[in-house]
Each structure stands twice: as C-alpha cells, then as structure tokens.
Design a protein that fits this description.
With 113 residues, the chain is an alpha+beta fold. The chain has helices at residues 5-10, 59-73, 88-91; strands spanning 20-21, 25-29, 37-43, 82-84, 100-104. The chain has a five-stranded antiparallel β-sheet, with helices on one face. The protein is globular, with a radius of gyration of 14 Å. 23% of the residues are buried. The chain binds guanosine-5'-monophosphate and zinc ion (ZN). Zinc ion is lined by residues 1, 4, 6-7, 46, 97.
Length: 113
Amino acid sequence: MSDCIFCKIAGGDIPTELLYESEDVVAFNDLDPQAPVHVLIIPRRHISSLLEIGETDAILAELQSAAIEIARQRGLGETGFRLVTNCLEDGGQAVFHLHLHLLGGRRMGWPPG
Ligand code: 5GP
Ligand code: ZN
C-alpha cells in the first residue's frame, strides 16, 4: 500500500535496521520504545488489522513464531516478555498495518491502560 509507513519499511523505501527477515515477516525496533526491548513484528504484505486476516491465513502463527525467536535472541527467554497487538480505535491502534509489539526487559503492569 503506497501510503503505508510499515509497507515502506518492509519494502526498503524507508531505511530501517531489520532485526529479523523471512519470506513473509520482518521485524524492527519501535521508534518510540516503551521498554528496554520493543520490537515490531509485521507481515511484509499489507494487512490493516487483526480483523482483516482471512480464516485460513497462517500469518499470525508466523508472526508469533518470529516474535518468540527474537525474544530468545534478545535474552528474554528466562525473564519473559509481552506480545501485544492493538486493534482499531478502542485497542489503541495508530498504524493500520498489522503488527505485534514485543515488549521486554522490565516488569509489565496489569491491567493495561
Ligand atoms: P500501534 O499503536 O499502532 O499499536 O503502534 C504503532 C507503533 O509504531 C508505535 O509504537 C510507534 O512508536 C511505532 N511507529 C510509528 N511510526 C514508526 C516508524 O516510522 N518507524 C518505527 N520504527 N516505528 C514507528
Ligand atoms: Zn502496509
């Protein structure tokens, strides 16, 4: 999608250090980190939100597997981490290209704000 910032990152149009790359998934650091580790894991193709994923689409499992691999690489395998996906307005979604937030390196609060 031409005006989508995450499509531009995935396509290399906005130079960004990619922490993980596969055929379908890329990951990079969040611009405004909310924890010592704050990585965004996204599909290469444009999917606007969780609600747009087709029933037979395996992309969620791929995103989660990538997130777990990155979490281990970043040393979160012992202490744990949080995976978050915000969906639409009430969920607090600001960028309408599906992404998982991998957050770690500090104790997370609950309930979320
Ligand atoms: P959302 O609120 O949609 O779940 O999260 C969007 C996230 O994308 C925010 O944490 C924000 O800091 C991050 N973000 C927005 N624009 C950019 C960008 O151009 N580059 C990077 N690396 N992160 C971005
Ligand atoms: Zn996009």
